């Protein structure tokens, strides 16, 4: 059984209880795959997503670009899968290590940056879209959002997974943008900056909500 303290410190995910997720985690545990290596693999999939986004922006809106956007969406989702399975292998599989927290957090921050920096260069640079600036803003703010959560832990307030733009929400938004772009590539240069703007603004709101909750807990009698 996983103790209550560990459960409290984990991001609540319904998919963690899915039968396929449990089977996959047990299979990887039996094969001797370490949770730290799964965490590092998430960066590999983030590289695939970021590079696919970047290269899609260099191509005409034809089937080549469409497939790159589909690959980017798959890379984003596989990155999330790694983020979920590494914890399941570590905790349910009994393979926790002293360095687990480092491998759990650092690849996540690198992956966030890789996806959004790739997105920053994924659409033609029209003056009114600000795709480059919004992509970099989303990259920086996503890392800051996670930093606020980690800071709350060091202050004794526990993990704060409040949204509206926690990691799963950010990646879901990017996945939808990629798939919409694959279906209607001529509109991708409009879909992407809107998505990045929503993510950046949502990160600001998320940081505010998390900071408010942390202050409320540490200042309470």
Outline the structure in words.
The chain is mainly α and 221 residues long. Helix content is 73%, strand content 0%. The protein is built from eight helices and no strands. The protein is globular, with a radius of gyration of 18 Å. 38% of the residues are buried. The N terminus is likely disordered.
Short structural summary:
The chain has eight helices and no strands.
The helix/strand class is mainly alpha
Give, in order, the helices and strands. Answer: HHHHHHHH
Report the count of strand segments.
Answer: 0
Look at the structure and give the mean pLDDT: 89
Shape: globular
Any idea what the radius of gyration is? Answer: 18 Å
Q: What's the N-to-C terminus distance?
A: 33 Å
* Portion in strands: under 5%
Largest sheet: none
Low-confidence stretches: 1-6
